[in-house]
Amino acid sequence: MSGETLYGRARTSRETWWAQHREASLNWLALGLLLAAWNASDNEAVPDARRRPESLRGYSYVSVRAASSMKLQRTRSEAAG
């Protein structure tokens, strides 16, 4: 019989792909879990971290674009006033 076998049957291309990419897939999964845990952890390491601007505190998620826009607006208002 030619070709590799897995449990007595010929390996399919799908099984071969998984075998070749298993470690990389598991590494990405581990990285995702690590980042999720990091994001969920309390930020006690930086007690003097800046708080969100008052206008953004009602939102559970704030994009980088929104935060940058608020900073730009605050800079412009400070320069004008």
Characterise the protein shown here:
With 81 residues, the chain is mainly alpha-helical. It folds into 2 domains: 1-41; 52-81. It is 56% helix and 5% strand. Strands 1-2 form a two-stranded antiparallel ribbon. A hairpin with a 2-residue loop joins strand 1 and strand 2. The chain is elongated. The N and C termini lie far apart (84 Å). 0% of the residues are buried.
Which helices and strands, and how do they pair?
Blueprint: E1 5-6, E2 9-10, H1 13-40, H2 64-80
Short description:
The chain has 81 residues and is mostly helical. It has helices at 13-40, 64-80; strands at residues 5-6, 9-10.
Structural class: mainly alpha
Q: Got a strand count?
A: 2
Helicity, as a percent range: 55-70%
Helix and strand pattern: EEHH
List the total number of helices: 2
Computed CA radius of gyration, to the nearest angstrom: 25 Å
| Strand coverage percent | under 5%
Query: What is the arithmetic mean of pLDDT?
Result: 76
Give, in spatial order, the strands making up the sheet with the most strands.
1-2
Major sheet characteristics: 2 strands, antiparallel
How many angstroms separate the termini?
Answer: 84 Å
